[in-house]
Structure formats: C-alpha cells, structure tokens
Amino acid sequence: MPIAPSTLRYALFAAGFVTAGIVPVVAFWSLRGSQPESPSPAPSHTSAAPSPHESEVSISSVARPKQPFASLSRRPTRSYSQPWSCFRGPQYGVSPWANVPVAWDGESGQGVLWKTPLKTSCVGSPVLWQDRIFLTEADEKERAVLAFDAESGKELWRQVVADGGKDAPLPPVADSALAMPTPACDANGVYVLFGTGDFAAFTHDGKPKWQVFLKRPEIGYGYASSPCVIDGLVCVQFDELSGGYALAVEAATGKIKWKQPRSRGPSWCTPVAIPGEDGKPLLVLNANGSATAYDMTGKVVWDVEAANGQVTPSPVWWDGRVYFVNVNSCLICYKTSDTTKELWQVRGKLPDVASPVIVNGLLFMGTSSGHMVCVDARTGKEVWTHKSPRPYASLVASGDRVYSLGRDGTMHIVAADRTYRVVGTCSLGEGSDATPALGDGRIYIRGRNNLWCLGAQ
After folding, report:
1. Is residue 39 included in any domain, yes or no?
2. What is the pLDDT of residue 340?
3. Sign of the torsion angle spanned by Cα atoms 126, 127, 133, 138
C-alpha cells in the first residue's frame, strides 16, 4: 500500500531524513587524515567531449562571490574532533560522545543553550563539522545552504544554489520537499543536493567550489536521499520512477568518477558506506526488493534480496552484518565479513521512515504503528516492544542511551538495554521531522521554526 505523502519521511533523513533522509553519509574512510586537499578548478565546458556516463549531467563553474566570508580561525572552547558529518553521522546514528544531554524543555528554556529562527520549515537534518553547523532550505524561489556557529547559533553565511534546470518546471511537491536531503561534509567542504536535481559543493567558509545539475527527479513526495562522502568521492543514490542510477563524483571538482544505471524504481533511502571483505569501503544502496553494494570504481560487488516497497529507512551496519528494513516488508540481516549470506529475517512492527540504530548488540526501531521495538541484533529475536510516538527522525544513540524524536518535538530517551527503561522525556516546544546531530555535550535539532542547541547550562 502506498505511503501517504503526509507520512513520508519529510526527509530524513532525508531529516533523513532527512530528512528521511533524507538522508547525505560521510563514512569512516572520509575521516582519515585532517589535511584538506587542494581543490581542483571546476571542469570547463570547453574541455574534451564528455564520456557516455557524463552525457546526462551538466557541470558548471560557479563564480566566486564578492562578499567576505566568515573566518575559520576562531578556536572553539569545546571539542569538535569527532564530526557529525552526514545524515545519522558516520557511525550509523551512534555518537562518539557519551555525554549528550538527557534533560531540556524548550518552553521554559531549561537546557536550551541557544535557538536561531529559520526562514523556512524544511526537514533536511543539520550536520556538524568543527565549529560549524550546516543545513539547507528551500522555497519556490530559491534553494540555499547555510552555516551557523555551533557555539552561538549565529548565522555565518548563506549561499543560494542556482537552478540548473533553467526553464524546466519544479517537481510537483511542497516547497519544503525540495530540501529533504541532508548535507554531507569532509575536510575539504560541504556537499548539498536538492529535490530540483541541483548538486553543489562549498568550502567550509561558504565559497562555491562546483555545481552539477543531475536532472529533475521523477519521484513521488520529493527526492530525499542524502549524499555520502567516501575517500574523496561524493556518492548519490538517484533512484526514481524511470529507474535512475548510482553516481560518484570527485569531491574536489564535481567531475563524474562513475555512474551505474539502476532499475529498482523509486527509493527515498540514503546509502551507507560499510567495510568490505578486504577492508575497503563499499557503497550500499537499498531499494524495492534489492540491496546492492558497489566498490569505489562503481563495480557491483553483491546484490541481494532486501526490504521491498517504498523504501525510506537507511541500512545500518554492525559487527560484520548489514540490516535492511521497511514497513509491510521485513527486517533482514546479512553477514558481510566473508561471503554475503542471509542470517535471518523477521516481520512485524517495522519503521516506514525512521532508520534503526544498534547499540550494545541491540537493534532499536521507531515503527509506523507508534512503538519502539528492540531486537537482538545477532538473532533477530524480539527483546521488548513499548508504545512510543511514531518518529520521522531516525533514531540516534549516545553512550548507553537511545534517542527517538517524535513528530511533535518530544524526545523519548531509553536505556540501550534488554530491560525497557525510560531515561528521560524532553519537549522541544515545536514539531520536528529532522534527525538530530550529536556533539560533545550537545544535541542540535532542526525544529519546524528554529535550529536548537541543547546541553548543560
């Protein structure tokens, strides 16, 4: 049965979504080394003729803006050594910090360090790199990427991404659905993708690097899949009604590295990077009935049966296993450490938007039926199920705690344990469909009207 537009991951994920996804992912491998590369100039249209893989994608240089940009020379008082650099962070929703707050109240101001009003009510999730927070916004007139100071919430810069579709009509979706994918970043920049098909890169201080126009996505509810960065490549899952493709471009230039056609139809899922058998990264995509792993040359390493339907929850990897899930289908687990082998699959109460998270060998899901479900990640056996507001935001974790953000802005925090125990229930005071970003003693949430920073005062 199709998912109603009102129930689709407003992005997460993309907020994963977004926003459901809507949801971009920076893998472990992109975090190796702290020295940025020297970016190459944007490709020129007067260069050699494009290859067949490049024929449907246009790349344009972007003029340098004349206005000054915010300096990166400030030394933050907090640690930003572990970035939350993509949709759900680089560890599939698990924070490297165990000190994320467990108590706040948006209405009274308890635990609110700052909040900054936002121009539009979009759902792409925030990401954190050093002392910068990046997110996107859109309306019928323009699409933009913004940077905020993580310490104060001050807007540092805003850059409009020009519409590469020129006279092509915008996709017939709500304005907010044009900015469902979450940005991704690495040491060299921030990468954004919009539901218009516009794909762009900026330096951390807002200087344009390159822009690519993919095409107008043909997909219901709006395009939601976030990009991910792996070893200097920005990877995209561009599944749509007509088939689509998987794509990797050079992060420094926007030049196409590889492009592979796909035929599974539309998907709102954000791809993830997992370690392959040889330790090298694989890009894993989930769509209707199929999960596919590509190496960094674009070669298909494996393709297996997976959750079917209008797939939005992103895959999760843990201890040599990868998991795929979707409502009205199944939760399925494969072993990937040597050969790709199905270990188990279960049915029951499953998520339609929110991606799961794994902590302490337990897999947690926020389901479409309004339950939080805990299963043993090794066996798939149910550990417990309790009523909990249905989230669009993907589940995240800090230390031994799991965070599930309801659509009304109420965060439900439970112990990552075989015994169900509530750690806290915190109200933001406004709704949210975006997946939180977790930092050192901080949690950053995009609400419908504000960007929030929560932590001990």
Report:
1. no
2. 87
3. negative
Instruction: Write the pLDDT tens digit of every residue in 305-349.
Output: 999 999 999 999 999 999 999 999 999 999 986 678 999 999 999
> In the predicted model, is pLDDT for residue 126 greater than 60?
yes
Q: What is the pTM of this model?
A: 0.85
Cα dihedral 112/448/27/243 (nearest 10): 170
CA distance 424 to 326: 27
Q: What is the pLDDT of residues 235-244, one digit of tens each?
A: 999 999 988 9
User: What distances in angstroms separate CA 321 from CA 8, 344, 378, one per listed residue?
Assistant: 27, 11, 9
Distance, first Cα to last Cα, the chain: 47
The CA distance from 237 to 249, in Å, is 12
Q: Is residue 197 part of a domain?
A: yes
* 49 falls within a domain: no
- State both tokens at 434: 């975006």
Read off the amino acid at residue 343. L
Q: How many CA atoms lie within 13 A of 443 on its CB side?
A: 34
Q: Which residues contact 218 (CB under 8 A, 6 or more apart)?
A: 171, 240, 241, 242
Query: Distance (Å, rounded) from C-alpha 96 to C-alpha 311?
Result: 28
Residue 63 exposed, middle or buried by CB count within 10 Å (0-12, 13-18, 19+): exposed
List 290's β-bridge partners, or say none: 287, 305
Please give the helix or strand (H or E) that residue 376 lies within, else none: strand 371-376
Q: How far apart are CA 453 and CA 445, in angstroms?
A: 7
Phi, then psi, of 162 in degrees rounded to 5:
-65, 150
Interval 52-111: pLDDT, tens: 333 344 444 343 333 323 333 333 455 566 789 999 999 999 999 999 999 999 999 999
β-pair type (127-129, 290-294): unpaired
Domain residue limits at 333: 8-31+78-455
| Distance of alpha carbon 18 from alpha carbon 393, whole angstroms | 7
User: Is 89 part of a structural domain of the chain?
Assistant: yes
Q: In the chain, how many domains are there?
A: 1
Coil vs helix vs strand at 5: helix
Residue 425 sits in a domain of what CATH number? 2.130.10.10
Helix, strand counts (H, E) of the chain: 1, 34
Backbone dihedral region for residue 49 (phi beyond 0: left; psi -120 to 50: alpha; all else: beta): beta
- Please name the residue that has the structure tokens 């407003």: 10
Strands (E), 162-232: 184-186, 189-193, 198-202, 208-213, 228-230
Contact indicator for 206, 194 with CB cutoff of 8 Å:
no
